[in-house]
Design goal:
mainly beta, 8-stranded antiparallel beta sheet
Length: about 140
């Protein structure tokens, strides 16, 4: 089961270097050593308009490597490929699935090694919600 947590919007770039460049007077010697703050959004989101975040709830998807509390970065603009992890609507519920392509036949692998075979018209937006591009997993 999944729950949407954040939909990215245009984020302002208020970098420390940009703020320091507008100041007047004697510059601080430490100004040369300023570093940008780490912004995970810049590293994890390729297409902001087509990306959403959701959190894994429950332990159903542990066999696929997704654990309770993991934060998924889902990109709706990425192409579906063989072995991609996707969010798909299966039996009226959103699930994490691994996508399989065997010739012209597409299948979804659910946890428990259960496969759902897709009809040719089911590989569009009605079934697939997006490709999981990144996972943020807690180690503690």
């Amino acid at each position: 089961m999944l729950a949407q947590t954040f939909n990215p919007r245009n984020l302002r770039n208020d970098s420390l270097k940009a703020k320091r460049s507008a100041e007047t007077g004697f510059p601080s010697p430490a100004t040369d050593h300023l570093e940008e703050r780490l912004n995970l959004h810049e590293h994890l989101v390729q297409h902001p308009a087509a990306t959403f975040f959701c959190r894994v709830k429950g332990s159903d998807d542990e066999e696929l490597g997704f654990y309770d509390g993991d934060l998924l970065v889902v990109d709706r603009s990425l192409a579906y490929k063989h072995h991609s992890y996707v969010i798909a609507m299966v039996e009226g519920e959103l699930n994490i699935c691994r996508l399989w392509n065997r010739g012209k036949r597409w299948s979804l692998q659910l946890s428990g090694n259960h496969f759902v075979h897709l009809a040719p018209d089911q590989t569009g937006e009605n079934c697939m919600w997006g490709v999981i591009s990144n996972v943020i997993h807690s180690c503690i």
